[in-house]
Amino acid sequence: MSVEPNSALGRDTERRARVHAALADPARLHIVDHLSFGDASPSELQAVLGMTSNLLAHHVRVLEREGLLIRSRSESDRRRSYLRLVPEALGGLLPDAVMPVARLVFVCTANSARSQLAAALWSRASTVPVTSAGTHPAAKIAPGAVAVARRHGLRLTKSAPRRIADTLSFDDYVVTVCDNAHEELAAAPVASPARRLHWSVPDPVRSGTDAAFDEAYNDLATRVGHLAPRLTPIPTAS
User: Fold this and answer.
1) Which of 24, 40, 95, 212 fits a 20 to 30 Å CA distance from 55?
2) What is the pLDDT of residues 169-211, one digit of tens each?
3) What is the per-residue pLDDT across 115-145, written as a single tens digit (0 to 9) for each?
């Protein structure tokens, strides 16, 4: 069967060929593998890959050009940016390795919205134990988080926001869902970088609108859906 270059099928073939070419370099594939778990700043990728800033910038430009990465500004430090993988652009090319985890701890600043929603979504998607915490916990869960959970049929925990220092165990796997919390914990690590990842999710409490909370919910639900099949509970001794 011949394919016309300007047909829809021909254009898709060319797009997939460019994606494969972009991933043919081991360094770029390593970047994609790392970002398949969570977001990272260019400086964090440099530390992981042991790569010069110029070379990393070149690889990132290639991946961005082919629509594999998107970039957002940190809500904490506007000079800082985070790179996020676009899983839909990979069409099943992500690694399917499964990692055993004792417990997930979702963390944001106030533990009043994003981390609470992420933990509830995780409980629905995975058997890996989960909890949530905050670097500076609020007095109660945000009303907008309660409302968006109700709109989507999600059951939130009834526990009050908790401090990460009172929650974290040495074998926990930390997922920050807030730029402020991520950058605070990176400056004074409470968990090994190998057991910590970041999701740069905009804070819906800032605007307080239903639309902002729905957007945060959908973002978290998508990320949980991608990560859940790749983590498994650590078997308990019989």
Assistant:
1) 95
2) 888 999 999 999 999 998 876 666 668 899 999 999 999 999 9
3) 999 999 999 999 999 999 999 999 999 999 9
The predicted model scores a pTM of: 0.81
- Domain at 99-233: CATH architecture: 3-Layer(aba) Sandwich (3.40)
Please name which of 165, 175, 185, 96 lies closest in space to residue 130, comparing C-alpha atoms.
175
Domain boundaries, the chain: 8-89, 99-233
d(CA 153, CA 19): 37
Write out the chain in H/E/C secondary structure. CCCCCCCHHHHHHHHHHHHHHHHCCHHHHHHHHHHCCCEECHHHHHHHHCCCHHHHHHHHHHHHHCCCEEEEECCCCCCCEEEEECHHHCCCCCCCCCEEECCEEEEECCCCCHHHHHHHHHHHHCCCCEEEEECCCCCCCCHHHHHHHHHCCCCCCCCCCCEHHHCCCCCCEEEECCHHHHHHHHHCCCCCHHHEEECCCCCCCCCCCHHHHHHHHHHHHHHHHHHHHHEEECCCCC
The architecture CATH gives domain 8-89: Orthogonal Bundle (1.10)
